[in-house]
Amino acid sequence: MRLRSVICWSLLLYSYVPHALAATPVLLDETACREAFAAIGRPPLLRAEFTQEKTLPDVARPLRTKGELLVSAELGVILRTLSPEFARSTKVMPLSRPNTDRPGIEARISRMIRAVLVGEYGQLAEFFSAQGRRDGAQLHLTLTPKSAEVRSALQSIELRFGTYLEQVDINEAAGSKVRLMFTGFRPTPDLSADERRSFAEAAAR
Amino acid sequence: MIHHRWLTLWLLLLGAVAAWTAQRLSQVQAVRSDLLALLPRASEQTPVQAALEHLAASGANRAFLLVSSPNLPAAIVATDEVAASLRDSGAFAKVIAKLPPPQGKAVLAFFQHAAPILAPTQATADLPRRFFARSYGTFSTTGTLSLADDPFGFASDHLRSLPWPQAALTWQDGYLTVKTAEYTSVLVILELRPNIGEYTAQLAVAKAVDQAERDLRRRNPAASVNRLGGVFYAEAAQTGARHDTDLISIGSVLGVVLLMLLVFRSIAMLATALASIAAGVVGGTAAVLLVFGEIHLLTLVFGVSLIGESADYSIQLVSAKLSDDEERVTGWLGRVLPGLGMALGTSLLGYAAMTLVPLPSIRQIAVFALTGLATAFATVVLLGPTATGVLRGGKVSAVFGDLAEMVRSLGRRLGSKSVAAGVLAVVVGLCLGSTIRTDDDVRSLINRPPELLRQEAVVTQTLGAGMSPQFILLHPAAGTDEACLQKAEALHARLVRCREAGQLGGWISLANLIPSISRQEEALTAYRRELSRERTKLETAFNEIGLTPKPGFWTAEATPLSLSDFMALPESTPFRHLRFRHEGKWCHLVTLRDVTDSDQVRTTLADEADITFVDKATSISRLLAEVRRPGPLWIALAFLLALSVLATRYGVRRGALLLLPTAIGVAWAPVLAAWVGVPASVFGLMALLLVLGVGVNYSIFLWEGGARSRSALAGVIASCLTTLLSFGLLAFCSMPALSWLGTTLSFGILVSFLLTPLALSAPAPHAADAGPR
Known about the structure:
Order of helices and strands of chain A: HEHEEEEHHEEHEEEH
Largest sheet of chain A: 10 strands, antiparallel
Low-confidence stretches of chain B: 764-773
Number of domains of chain A: 1
Largest interface: A-B, 49 and 42 residues
Helix content of chain B: 55-70%
Helix content of chain A: 25-40%
Number of strands of chain B: 13
CATH topology of chain A: outer membrane lipoprotein receptor (LolB), chain A
Structural class of chain A: alpha+beta
Low-confidence stretches of chain A: 6-23, 98-110, 112-119
Number of strands of chain A: 10
CATH superfamily of chain A: Lipoprotein localisation LolA/LolB/LppX
Shape of chain A: globular
Strand order of the largest sheet of chain A: 1-6-7-8-9-10-2-3-4-5
Radius of gyration of chain B: 34 Å
CATH architecture of chain A: Clam
Oligomer: heterodimer
């Protein structure tokens, strides 16, 4: 579940990375990562296309999907998988959700996403230690789980930013790898009625 | 000579009983301080009692602290300091601040081959769609079983839905942490020593936590420590009760000593009074230990308040002796004994009525009082003559003599109008009493310090663990895990209905962890059917992504999951309290969260003999209300009974007059107590029965001899003062129920005593036909 929140965090960062980056590779420590994070702007609504490539130990070849991403600073994230046809699905991650039978897990994810939205690096720093590198226009961040609990599921998460977040690599402890690549970023003014309903339904579940 | 032999035998017997009592009290289990011990044990529902005791025992060996600071690093430093301080104290078996996270791998391995038996039993599984969702989904395989082991995610979904209680907590460098808007907190688990039932061990725990908190606050004023655990309540109850018993016993004994010296100036009789008090306390305690096998702190506190009453017999004895000296008549002992016996009889009647209240604690008090007063009386009767034999120069002090004279002259002036006014006072008191606020909450029986309640609320709120005191007990006749799991599964739909209606927030059941074998078989059958139906599509899908199914996949062979096997895993520890054996049969518990409408939940859930919704506190509170409501009838019957006893010696008319001051006391005691904030409760009812039993004594003493002699009348005053002192001190004790009882009792006795002259009213008390028969 933490992985999900970290990916959400990464997706949200997609639109927030500063445009001008230094030309010479520079290693960033925790403090510099924190400062880079704090400098990010926050548009209310962002859309993009994504391509996911998933490599599983039991499966002979990588699994590729394509779809659309929606990030709402107010409501949360929607990942809509459009192809291949048989894998079509929609994943809604609302920011707010009332207590359910498992209040802790759900509430924690909401808290973390909210932390990303308000630029509260401390929330992420609770779970991961960060190291960064600036290479010309690009910024690379590597997040390593601090606790054994998270390490039992995740080895690391790598983020690459260009103008926006371009790529997320998730290296799982069991050997699976997931790569998410983002393109075609565009801000649009409004959510559709369907999207609003999806957020509302997910928040109520 | 014969008398001395009896006295020696009696003293020897008392010595032996005292030694036995002291030995029993030194045993840990003999003295109870918890609420559970105060509640009735429903013999017809022994599994309920067993479940309550099982839950109490499960939580008895642990306590929790939440160490909070504005940020995580500071919270960890604070936690390390607190943990070090607690370890140094030596008060704990173990202080756990850092612990490894549960080995997810062991749980994963347990469910590795269980996918077919965790499949849905009802709706169509749509296996191809589920397979693609699991293969291609962004988060679908993270931290779960592999795609080959669980291609459709049935076992992985089950794993993710396991209701781990630490869901609100996060492991940070080995610390269990939780973050709120203002604080980051770290959970510290305290494992208690095996002797935690002993007060010294409880006190050591409380002191160690207090000290650690003080040291922490001195270094870091922004940090805080909140505690949760029965041991803290037990310690507070024991400390409070000890303070109460000290206050009442020391206060009462000092009062008796002072009064005996001031009023009668007799060391010999003082010794008799103290001996009778000691005999009463020893006799009462021994009787309770014999009958119940244990004694509650509530009983001990109330027991010492009987000191004032048990001193009455000595006071009456010495006042009778001095009265004889005044009147220069002989045979004083024979004359005073019937009156004393009558007084004892009415008191015992009051306490005997208390045995009808359906609470073990109240019955303990009644047994204590019945035996204690009888023992004190016997001691006075046996020891008194010897003591009075050496009584030299005893004389009523002038102040008490004058006071007695005033009461006597007041009584002489009272006539039928006064009696009518008294009856009117009873009616007015009863009318006012009917408007008093009531409180039947059984929790008033124990001292629950507000600070501990506040800290408990902080901990449960922070951890998001709002477990309700209510739970469901599954005790099917078959007594197997399988039968219990089937019951829990049958209950599921009704629990969902309650949650959707907002009557409860959630629940944890062992059926959430391991389905029943019959459910597993049902799932396996449905899974095989689907697998066979969708085989072609699935083979295409597997080829599409390049997955080779594991051997045996298409036949779906699966070994059933066993609850016993799961319970053998170390990771099952948080769920072990949900299962216990009773009389060789397994029983399961379903714990509930955030119950908002207990009655509705009970109605919806418990309509089968082997499903019991347990809400002990509410059901006992309801029982107390049922006992309290017909209270006026009880009291009326008690008055009739007392009148019939008094009539045998004094006749109906004089008997009624003797009861009149007490009737006014009984009618007005709740009104006066309400004036100082005491609600009407079953304890108020008990107090009124005792007012009847004790208050009428003064009328009897006065009528028997007080009206004729300054000494006897001074004795009545002294008796009342000692009783008022003891019960008055009871009003200041820490347990709300005893405090209410003491307040009501004191007001009742005071009013009864002040109006005692009414008992002397017309016809003239000295008339030959109006004297004792």
